[in-house]
Amino acid sequence: MSAQSSVRTLASDPGMKHTPVEEQVEQAVDVVKSRAEPRNLYEFRVWNIPRYTWRCTWSAWETIYHRPGDEAMYAVVRRYLDRVQWVERMAWNNQTDADQKYEYYWSTGLTITEGKEVTNGFSLGASYEGMSIGIDHSTRTFKSTETTSTWGETITITVPRRSELIFYQKRFDFADEITFVNDAWGKEWNIGSWGSYTPYTTKKTAVQIMAEEYFTRDGRLPEGPGTAIADTFPEVLPAGWTRNREDVTSRAKKVLTDMGL
Prior knowledge:
By secondary structure, the protein is mostly beta strands. The protein contains three helices and 15 strands.
């Protein structure tokens, strides 16, 4: 897993005057990995992930629009894994003297539970597709069927006589903090607030991913919460310059408005 750092070509025309553009050179990222032994995380239903200042679970620049020779706009995403949960989806209580079979349909998918207006600017789900995170000394990569599409199947569950069986599905809870950059007038500009350079205009989102992972057990899991450690790395850098929100391009201002900002 590494931060997505790359050299971008300015979309805007810098004009006749030569303006040096500082290139972002890809280099090794200071990743802090979990030193814990791998765990199956079956001890508790809820596992919280601690946050660390200036470090996140995943971070990248995402393109909102790019018009060569004119302008561009980017979302600077800082992503945090807040918790992992085993969600109880179904319970069967067999009080007969014979094993019983039940059919159950389960499915995967991504849901934006807060800040869904961000999709009026760019596909947040697409930024999760293929993303890899490190958690408790193991790596988890998210599939298209967990992020940009859904998947489901009907399975047959056998519940032994005189017993209860619980179906749990794993859910990842993420939080994104997103600032914005407007490439115009020959430079990349962080978009500040109305009448001020700081704080940057920021969109916060909450995302839940129902994963392609489940298990069944007799009896409910202890609630917890437990604590799991996720790998972290430094947040991607913002642009080198900042403008007040009212001083960016009309199109950038409209995109922000469309995203509920």
